[in-house]
Amino acid sequence: MSEKENFLTIKENGSGELIIKKSIFIASIARTNSVEEANAFIQEISKKYRDATHNTFAYTIGLNDDQVKECDNGEPSGTAGIPELKALQLMKLKNVTVVVTRYFGGIKLGAGGLIRAYSNSVTNAVEKVGVIKRVLQQELLFSVPYNRFDEVDHYLKTNDVFIADTEYGVDVKIHIFLDDDDQEKTKTDLTNLLSGQIEFTKGQKRYNEIPVKDNNFHEQ
């Protein structure tokens, strides 16, 4: 499967807050699948925190960072939006918009301090909401007799195969989703397990969400 078909994004919309030298930084982050959705989110958060000193933002849309934009919103050039965008890209996140709101606390941070503050605000928010991997997978359907279900179920769970649905009728009908690269091996294993008494039907292709269990995004 092409790596471009799999990508990392945030698990859910949310926010994180940091206080740095009395300034409050609130990073609001959302999944956005288009520039229109990104702009709507930016407007929503900017309106929510319209009394703030700054509402800076960055977004990346598309699996190849096809459309990106950043804005310092009055902070010194290059100290807010670019660090936010780089933080998203460093974590390899796609289709995400972040708005970092600052309430100035009276102590200037300097250019280096601002870059770190805005970058860390994004990372902090991402760690709070979590990250998932969206994987394009193929659905396979097959039926097994009740007396063989437990061993098939054990095989699927042992091999981390995503079981989307199980229907109980004359036999047990199982819906699973697989990466393209895993289909042949799984079909062969199940065929051998059931001594050839199995038939597969292809269903739909869809993106499934797999939790990323740690913050080592670079290794995903």
UniProtKB/TrEMBL annotation:
<comment type="similarity">
    <text>Belongs to the IMPACT family.</text>
</comment>
<dbReference type="InterPro" id="IPR001498">
    <property type="entry name" value="Impact_N"/>
</dbReference>
<dbReference type="InterPro" id="IPR020568">
    <property type="entry name" value="Ribosomal_Su5_D2-typ_SF"/>
</dbReference>
<dbReference type="InterPro" id="IPR035647">
    <property type="entry name" value="EFG_III/V"/>
</dbReference>
<dbReference type="GO" id="GO:0005737">
    <property type="term" value="C:cytoplasm"/>
</dbReference>
<dbReference type="InterPro" id="IPR015796">
    <property type="entry name" value="Impact_YigZ-like"/>
</dbReference>
<protein>
    <submittedName>
        <fullName>Uncharacterized protein</fullName>
    </submittedName>
</protein>
<dbReference type="Pfam" id="PF09186">
    <property type="entry name" value="DUF1949"/>
</dbReference>
<dbReference type="InterPro" id="IPR015269">
    <property type="entry name" value="UPF0029_Impact_C"/>
</dbReference>
<dbReference type="InterPro" id="IPR036956">
    <property type="entry name" value="Impact_N_sf"/>
</dbReference>
<dbReference type="Pfam" id="PF01205">
    <property type="entry name" value="Impact_N"/>
</dbReference>
<dbReference type="InterPro" id="IPR023582">
    <property type="entry name" value="Impact"/>
</dbReference>
<dbReference type="GO" id="GO:0006446">
    <property type="term" value="P:regulation of translational initiation"/>
</dbReference>
